[in-house]
Design a protein that fits this description.
Layout: E1 2-3, E2 6-7, E3 12-18, E4 23-30, H1 39-50, E5 56-59, H2 66-74, E6 78-80, H3 88-91, E7 101-103, E8 108-110, E9 116-117, E10 119-125, E11 128-134, H4 136-140, E12 154-158, H5 162-173, H6 176-195, E13 211-214
Parallel strand pairs: 3-13, 5-6
Antiparallel strand pairs: 1-2, 3-4, 5-13, 7-8, 8-9, 10-11, 11-12
Helix pairs in contact: 1-2
């Protein structure tokens, strides 16, 4: 596996835990370095084993990938994955994207200064259509421009981003579900390391983030 600019022998262990019965219901070992893209394929076998039509799928931010989250919804599973804060705006200390409000009726963003970003530019991100919204004229005279951009601000939205809006609403309504996931699924890895007397170091393995599933 390649990680942190190094190559080493290692495995990425995926575990699905039934939160109702507090039992591991499925596990998989992969050489994939990151957890992105593994959400659906970790949760789907667990749903089959549990013999239920719908389940809640709770995972940490390492699993955040819009295609996978959408696939979960389409398969009848309800995903809860917190969005990571990343990108040039975050690293530069500017307003985050989630501080811009999307107005679906107008198909536009409302910036923290109250201006409407409605000018659209389309491009491709992977296989998805990405739409950039901006308002160059408003940025030029904005009183808080220094907190937002060096030139003019563009905010992007993917064609299927409504799936993220729905998930964000669910997480806002049930923030405690993330703490419950941590209590359920981090414990197995901690126990294994303790049994091997390794504590925080675990040679030849990388115990990445895991997905938690539970009956609704």
């Amino acid at each position: 596996m390649a990680a942190h600019a190094k190559v080493a022998v290692g495995y990425n262990i995926q575990v699905a835990v039934d939160a109702k019965h507090k039992m591991i219901v499925d596990q998989e070992v992969t050489n994939q370095v990151v957890d992105m893209g593994l959400l659906t394929q970790t949760a789907e076998p667990a749903r089959t084993i549990l013999a239920v039509e719908t389940i809640d799928v709770v995972a940490d931010r390492g699993y955040f990938k819009i295609e996978d989250i959408e696939a979960c919804e389409k398969a009848g599973m309800t995903p809860y994955v917190p969005k990571p804060q990343r990108g040039s705006s975050v690293s530069n200390g500017f307003f985050r994207k989630d501080e811009f409000r999307y107005d679906a009726d107008r198909d536009a963003f409302i910036c923290p200064a109250g201006q409407v970003l409605s000018t659209r530019y389309e491009s491709k991100l992977r296989e998805l259509t990405k739409i950039d919204y901006s308002n160059r004229a408003a940025c030029l005279v904005c009183a808080i421009k220094s907190r937002c951009t060096k030139d003019y601000r563009k905010v992007s939205r993917l064609e299927n981003e409504a799936v993220l809006d729905r998930m964000a609403a669910r997480l806002k309504a049930q923030p405690e579900i993330l703490d419950r996931r941590r209590e359920m699924v981090e414990h197995p890895f901690g126990s294994i390391k303790q049994w091997m007397n390794r504590r925080r170091s675990f040679p030849f393995y990388t115990s990445g983030a895991v997905a938690s599933v539970g009956r609704p």
